[in-house]
């Protein structure tokens, strides 16, 4: 199948026209309108500084249902210990810059180039991109970020500077999404790390049907924050898991 060249209009071809590897289109920009149009159709950008903007819609697609997140006994003990304080939407810039030093599972070098950082900070300012942060002794030591469209959450990347920091942050985020009745977390690429949390693959067509429903449900407006039952994340989460 051909790879489509995008025009100046923020429109995309049908995701089902993507190549077998998931590549759908090339070019365009990272404007707010184009990114929102992409996510609403199950498409995301992934490229590096050596290539033009590339747009993807993989088949199959790994997803994680928030209410089915798996937590190992060891991670449960770490959460229970209160080693990390967890927040939402407190330092989006710090999280995405922390993630920019990480490699995509199938890539070479960083894929979060400076223009990506700028674009997703615009998404954050507009209320669509969100972050979860893990803090230790007042320092940001891990976190993750993604994009919310309706009740669908598209996980983008995570990072850690302390053992288990990103895992505790991710589990806290998943439980928050569960309480807010999000339909699924899109994991974009299958990795052993995400499978251990309970992620599984669905066909592209199944994913697009799920997204068609989830994107039309009103989401969580404004900056996100942990509710009173889970003021700092890990402590109350440990109680929920027994």
Number of strands: 11
DSSP helical segment count: 8
Report how far apart the termini are: 51 Å
Would you identify the CATH H-level superfamily of the largest domain?
Leucyl/phenylalanyl-tRNA-protein transferase, C-terminal domain
Number of domains: 2
Secondary-structure element string: EEHEEEHEHHEEEHEHEHH
The biggest beta sheet is recorded as: 7 strands, mixed
Task: Report strand %.
Answer: 15-25%
Average pLDDT, all residues: 90
Q: List the strand order in the largest sheet.
A: 6-7-8-9-10-5-11
Query: Ranges with pLDDT <50 over ≥5 residues?
Result: 104-109, 229-242
What percent of residues adopt helix (DSSP H or I)?
Answer: 25-40%
Radius of gyration: 17 Å
Overview of this structure, please?
The chain is an alpha+beta fold and 242 residues long. The protein folds into 2 domains: 4-56, Alpha-Beta Plaits, CATH 3.30.70; 61-241, Aminopeptidase (3-Layer(aba) Sandwich). The protein contains 8 helices and 11 strands. It has helices spanning 32-40, 73-81, 92-99, 114-125, 165-179, 192-196, 204-214, 234-241, and strands at residues 4-5, 23-26, 44-45, 54-56, 61-64, 85-88, 129-136, 139-149, 152-160, 184-186, 200-202. The strands form 2 sheets. Strands 6-7-8-9-10-5-11 form a 7-stranded mixed β-sheet, sandwiched between helices. Strand 8 (139-149) and strand 9 form a beta hairpin. Helix 2 crosses helix 8 and helix 3 (92-99) runs antiparallel to helix 4 (114-125). The longest helix has 15 residues, at 165-179. The N and C termini lie far apart (51 Å). Mean pLDDT is 90; it is low at 104-109 and 229-242.
């Amino acid at each position: 199948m051909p790879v489509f060249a995008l025009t100046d209009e923020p429109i995309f071809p049908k995701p089902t026209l993507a190549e077998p590897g998931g590549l759908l289109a090339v070019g365009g920009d990272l404007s707010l309108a184009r990114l929102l149009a992409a996510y609403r159709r199950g498409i995301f950008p992934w490229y590096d500084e050596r290539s033009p903007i590339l747009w993807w819609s993989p088949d199959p697609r790994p997803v994680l249902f928030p209410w089915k997140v798996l937590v190992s006994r060891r991670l449960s003990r770490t959460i229970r210990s209160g080693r990390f304080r967890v927040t939402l939407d407190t330092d989006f810039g710090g999280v995405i810059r922390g993630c920019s030093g990480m490699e995509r599972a199938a890539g070479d070098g960083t894929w979060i180039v400076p223009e990506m950082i700028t674009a997703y900070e615009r998404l954050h300012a507009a209320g669509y991109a969100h972050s979860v942060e893990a803090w230790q002794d007042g320092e940001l030591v891990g976190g993750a970020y993604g994009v919310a469209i309706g009740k669908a959450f598209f996980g983008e990347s995570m990072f850690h500077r302390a053992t288990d920091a990103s895992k505790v942050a991710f589990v806290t985020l998943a439980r928050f999404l569960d309480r807010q009745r999000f339909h699924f977390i899109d994991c974009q690429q299958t990795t052993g790390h995400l499978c251990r949390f309970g992620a599984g693959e669905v066909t592209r067509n199944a994913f697009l049907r799920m997204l068609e429903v989830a994107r039309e449900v009103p989401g969580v407006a404004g900056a996100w924050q942990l509710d009173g039952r889970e003021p700092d994340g890990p402590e109350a989460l440990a109680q929920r898991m027994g």
